[in-house]
Amino acid sequence: MKRRLFLQTAAGLFAAPAVIRSASAATPAEAQITLPPAKDLISSFGWITDVHYCTSPTRTIPKEDSIRVYAHSMAKMRQAIDLFNTRKLDFVIELGDFKDCLDNGDRPGTIAFLQTVESEFRRANAPRYHVCGNHDFDKITLGDFLDNTENAGDAVGRTYYSFVKGGIKYIVLDACYNNAEGEHYSQGKFNWAVAVVPKVEMDWFRKELSEGKEPVIVMTHQLVNTWDAKSQKIPDAFFIRNSAEVVEAMEKSGRVLAYICGHFHKGAYSERNGIHYIVNQGLVERPLPHNVCGMAHVDKNLNVYVEGVYNERSHVCKKA
């Protein structure tokens, strides 16, 4: 079936400053995708990534072609949640950099940003999950992040975890570590260009990949598709330092359908050895009516349909 997605206007979505109310044009639907009949879908979920919620003024980063319009993030997120709530989804997940901070901000003020964006996320009707992103720890501790967010089920209080929905095993990794010994990012004590999946977590990851027989989708914040660095102009700083180790574990398992992440706000896509690598675009980029989010659907033949919403790209990821 053809899905052409249209959006409500941003005006009136929440109490917002004038700059939000003036950005009221409807976001156009750029992406279309043909989905199998609902009876052939076994698992579906929605995602957002790189919300970067805070009250900072718009920031431009020319070398990344980045225009971060923080003032529009909440309205964009509300659009996404409203849409997700019209669909039958097994869960929704945010893929990191959920909040941001003020340059001269403090811990209490940054926690308040996290509480505000988490409150909006809780409007989702489906179970909710979080992925750790580097900006989630710029002014606050790891404990602050866990105390003010909530994952569903057995993932409560965890930064890496797995769960099964519709016969698909979903594995969430946390690469927000300074080193292989397991020093986690906390209160600004990190270099965002150094992201590591530590040894203890890698051992757990291999064990998860060896247990059960379900097909697997892996999600984290940072990228591992280093082979795309040159062709898709992705700077080295966006990749997990031990990407080769993560990729080797996934390929060796023979179970992984896709690896889904955010972090690189332009987005990217490739396929290697039967695994599809989907890098989603950053929600914070560009002013309304531009917006990005998406849904992914797995059919009974284990094809993954990535349904880009608004200005996000779509992909049909065929099972190898």
From TrEMBL:
<keyword id="KW-0732">Signal</keyword>
<dbReference type="Pfam" id="PF00149">
    <property type="entry name" value="Metallophos"/>
</dbReference>
<dbReference type="GO" id="GO:0016787">
    <property type="term" value="F:hydrolase activity"/>
</dbReference>
<feature type="domain" description="Calcineurin-like phosphoesterase">
    <location>
        <begin position="45"/>
        <end position="266"/>
    </location>
</feature>
<protein>
    <recommendedName>
        <fullName>Calcineurin-like phosphoesterase domain-containing protein</fullName>
    </recommendedName>
</protein>
<feature type="signal peptide">
    <location>
        <begin position="1"/>
        <end position="25"/>
    </location>
</feature>
<dbReference type="InterPro" id="IPR029052">
    <property type="entry name" value="Metallo-depent_PP-like"/>
</dbReference>
<dbReference type="InterPro" id="IPR004843">
    <property type="entry name" value="Calcineurin-like_PHP"/>
</dbReference>
